[in-house]
Design brief:
The protein is of the alpha+beta class. It has 2 domains: about 120 residues, no CATH class; about 60 residues. About 50% of the residues lie in helices and about 10% in strands. The strands form 2 sheets. It has a 5-stranded antiparallel β-sheet, with helices on one face. A two-stranded parallel ribbon has the order 1-2. A hairpin with a 6-residue loop joins strand 5 and strand 6. Helix 6 runs antiparallel to helix 7. The protein is rod-shaped, with a radius of gyration of 30 Å. The structure holds calcium ion. Calcium ion binds next to loops.
């Protein structure tokens, strides 16, 4: 039977893959196996051939972040995770789940069984968290987001708009300029310090060879130290 994963869930999976590219997919799932087909399950294709459930392996992702994003999307219906189930119609209240599988290796996400919910390609918001690493945000996510932008932004469903890409690149450029300025300053300080050390060594050599008396050495050292204090 022909089938496809509901486009809305395909967008969700794509956002999860983009944000956590090294995640484990061993327990991922879409279409149901023979056991699922013998009972009612969102993993079985419906009359529109759409599979309206997606299982996400729990490893290598922030499960709470994905569940939070899921609950905010209009297509969401219910999820099952770690012996708990929460349904939108129940205000996302978590209840004990005693089904056959405890769902401890993957999270089950079901959307509404409607054409509208299946076709809704709106973003799930997983790529829009604060990624400003200067404020202690998720720097890793920023790097992955950038690599996604570079390697094929056009293919990422629900990806960033051109304006967002420009803003992101400007932010990175401005951070890189600040890093360049800091590096230059550190290098200048290092050079000044090396210069001062060389001058001090020269003084000591001149003193030990009798060219400068102790008083002159102390005076010159004071001048050198004062000058380097002004520089830094
Ligand atoms: Ca796993």
């Amino acid at each position: 039977m022909a089938w496809y994963l509901a486009p809305s869930l395909s967008v969700l999976r794509s956002e999860v893959d983009t944000r956590w590219p090294r995640r484990d997919k061993t327990s991922d799932g879409t279409i149901g196996d023979t056991a699922h087909q013998e009972r009612a399950s969102d993993h079985n294709p419906n009359s529109r051939e759409s599979v309206d459930a997606w299982d996400m392996d729990k490893d290598g992702v922030d499960v709470d972040a994905v569940i939070g994003a899921f609950q905010r999307h209009p297509s969401a219906h219910y999820w099952i995770w770690n012996r708990q189930i929460a349904d939108k119609d129940n205000g996302w209240r978590r209840q004990a789940y005693d089904g056959e599988s405890p769902h401890t290796a993957h999270v089950h996400f079901s959307i509404r069984q409607t054409a509208a919910a299946e076709q809704d390609r709106r973003s799930w918001g997983l790529l829009e968290d604060d990624m400003d690493f200067r404020d202690g945000g998720d720097g890793e996510a920023l790097i992955y987001r950038l690599s996604a932008l570079v390697t094929g932004a056009a293919t990422v469903q629900g990806g960033p708009t051109k304006g967002e890409r420009v803003a992101l690149i400007e932010r990175v450029n401005s951070t890189l300029s600040r890093l360049d300025a800091l590096t230059a300053r550190v290098e200048a300080l290092g050079a000044a310090e090396a210069q001062r050390d060389a001058a001090l060594r020269t003084l000591l050599v001149e003193h030990s060879s009798g060219q400068l008396d102790a008083e002159a050495v102390v005076r010159r050292m004071g001048e050198l130290l004062a000058a380097s204090a002004t520089q830094s």
